[in-house]
């Protein structure tokens, strides 16, 4: 079998840099113990890696307190804690139609339970949300605005600084899902007016699955929704309210934190902007070529000024699932088909009625030859008789 061409980096970046594999292996062999629970050397050294990871990510997002950088299973886990920890009875929440189910479903359950009301702001023909539409959706009882920084379906990057400024003017909490952008493009929580930033480790930060987290700024009143061991003040009956313990309980995914630390270091050493330019070059080559092929439909591919390397397509007369299967079986090219856990994006695109799209997403370890192979494969499939 020929080597896999992996174009599903929006799901999980793969492969990881060799430095990440090596660091995780060495770390877990030497330091696979609970951090800070005991005074022996391995525990102290493990806690040092955890602290270094908090500090590195805090600096990456221009936060001012590493302790407010907390770890979780993934972005979905942190979004559940943040959204449920902020919502109050009678609140209104503004979000967008670009959201992943990790935002849509917690908000839906809160709405279904009669706790909040939710407004979903649409995106335009190019895939962008207009800040003025956010402003118009804010009411007197609006508690927070929740925005997906980069769509996992069409890759568009939303204007966070403008939306953050509106939230500050209106006294509204601004929550950002940076699952697809943390590690790909600069994010400054202070300059962008972000109150809570949520990230995952296994995508652009080049870490493993099962690790993510959030950065919570200032005195944001997030209620703890999980309680348990912290290794600190064990005689206290209630869970600790100070950070990082407020949003962490039990033993951390230590090897995950170590992998996230190594992945983030690798991204910074390579140069985040350099990696993004390389990915954007490949994305543009792919986009431009596919737009010239008869019967190929490219979604939101005209205005790409603020864009991550994610492209959604269809071929007229062919189900997305069938196209994805042909790319896999006949050409050994991995993509993602269907609704990509973001059903309202497909409602806005009109692709919800045709079972979604085929998504091709480029990562830092992709090469020009991978894109060339995908272009030729799609060209061949598009010319097949129907």
Structure description:
By secondary structure, this protein is α/β, with parallel strands linked by helices. It has two domains: 5-16 and 271-382, Aspartate Aminotransferase, domain 1, CATH 3.90.1150; 18-269, Aspartate Aminotransferase, domain 2 (3-Layer(aba) Sandwich), CATH 3.40.640. 38% of the residues lie in helices and 15% in strands. It is built from eleven helices and 13 strands. Strands 2-8-7-6-5-3-4 form a seven-stranded mixed sheet, sandwiched between helices. Strands 9-10-13-12 form a four-stranded antiparallel sheet, covered by helices on one side. Strand 3 (91-96), helix 4 and strand 4 form a beta-alpha-beta unit. Helix 3 (75-86) runs parallel beside helix 4 (101-112). The chain starts with a strand and ends with a helix. The mean pLDDT is 95.
Q: What is the topological layout?
A:
Layout: E1 5-6, H1 18-31, H2 41-60, E2 69-72, H3 75-86, E3 91-96, H4 101-112, E4 116-121, H5 131-137, E5 142-148, H6 160-170, E6 173-177, E7 196-200, E8 212-216, H7 254-270, H8 272-291, E9 296-298, E10 310-315, H9 320-331, E11 333-334, E12 336-338, H10 343-349, E13 357-361, H11 368-382
Parallel strand pairs: 1-11, 3-4, 3-5, 5-6, 6-7
Antiparallel strand pairs: 2-8, 7-8, 9-10, 10-13, 12-13
